Amino acid sequence: MASSGTYNFTLTNGEATLAALERVQIRHPEIRQEHMLTARREINLLFSEWSNRQVNLWEVTQLTVSLVQGTASYSIPSNVVMILDAYRSLNFGTATQIDSFMYPISRSIYATIADKFDQAPPTTFWFDRLINPTVTMWPVPDSGGPYTFVYYGVTQVQDANIPSGETPNIPYRWLDALVAGMAYRLARVYPHQDRPSLETDRKRDYDEAWGVAASQDTENVPFTITPSISTYYYRR
Predict the structure, then answer these.
(1) What's the rounded Cα separation, in Å, for the pair 176 and 16?
(2) Is the Cβ–Cβ distance between 133 and 99 less than 8 Å?
(3) CB atoms inside a 10 Å sphere around CB 89
(4) Beta strands 124-128 and 98-104: pairing type?
(5) Cα torsion 209, 214, 219, 224: sign
(6) DSSP labels for 31-54?
(7) β-pair partners for 90
(8) Cβ distance 201 to 194 under 8 Å?
(9) pLDDT, position 221
């Protein structure tokens, strides 16, 4: 028999819920409206957990901010939970575009800078992870632009709803981790009187499924560490 030749398998949020409920011994005839309401809450809490367990490569998006001379701080979309790599682009989107990598600094390092409003081509940025996050440039952009702050932001996983055949905002390789994670969370809500170890069992299943998926959610590239020894010299 020939294989299907297709790559379309996925789960709706509703199907993932049914699979998770089965894993906690709640069969289809037993499902009530409260189960579905609980599942909607738990799947979104699970996605909130995943937004903290970074990096989720499928949520990495290239975003831009147009920099203004003399302006240090800029708003970042509230769904951005992490900034990975960033660079300052001169004449962004033109044939004369020139990019320079920018380095992140912490709040503490930014606080130590004496000349916070000194104007020059920005070389560092501070990402302030507020409810409404901001990014602050240093040095402050000067008149040598136009500069564009280009960054790879990791956004939170989209909200999940159960009805209407909605599908989760995750790739195929994370489907098993989704069901395992929901089953673990539902086991905490609906403990099984005949299986006192159910929550522990589902937690073990989830840890294994998450570990497998997370180990593959990486870029398959060489990793090198090069020490900087240019300032080393011999002293007597």
Answers:
(1) 9
(2) no
(3) 21
(4) parallel
(5) negative
(6) --HHHHHHHHHHHHHHHHHHHHS-
(7) 98, 147
(8) no
(9) 79
> Does residue 153 contact residue 83 with C-beta atoms inside 8 Å?
yes
The structural domains of the chain, with segments of one domain joined by +, span 13-55+159-215, 57-155
Q: What is the mean pLDDT of the chain?
A: 92
122 is written with which tokens? Answer: 């920005």
The half-sphere exposure of 186 on its side-chain side, counting CA atoms within 13 A, is: 27
Q: Is 2 exposed, middle or buried (0-12, 13-18, 19+ CB in 10 A)?
A: exposed
* Model confidence pLDDT, tens digit, residues 52-108: 988 889 999 999 999 999 999 999 999 999 999 999 999 999 999 999 999 999 999
Helix axis angle for 175-189 and 33-52, nearest 10°, is 120
C-alpha dihedral, 15 to 16 to 17 to 21, nearest 10°: 100
CB 170 within 8 A of CB 216: no
User: SS3 of 66, please?
Assistant: strand
Sheet holding 147-155, edge to edge: 60-66, 147-155, 80-90, 98-104, 124-128, 134-138, 73-75
What does the alpha-carbon distance between residue 130 and residue 161 come to, in Å, rounded to a whole number? 26
DSSP-derived secondary structure letter, 80: E
Q: DSSP letters of 175-202?
A: HHHHHHHHHHHHHHHS-BTTBTTHHHHH
Q: How many CA atoms lie within 13 A of 83 on its CB side?
A: 27
What tokens were used for 25? 């011994």
Q: For Cα atoms 101, 106, 107, give the angle at the middle one, nearest 5 degrees.
A: 135
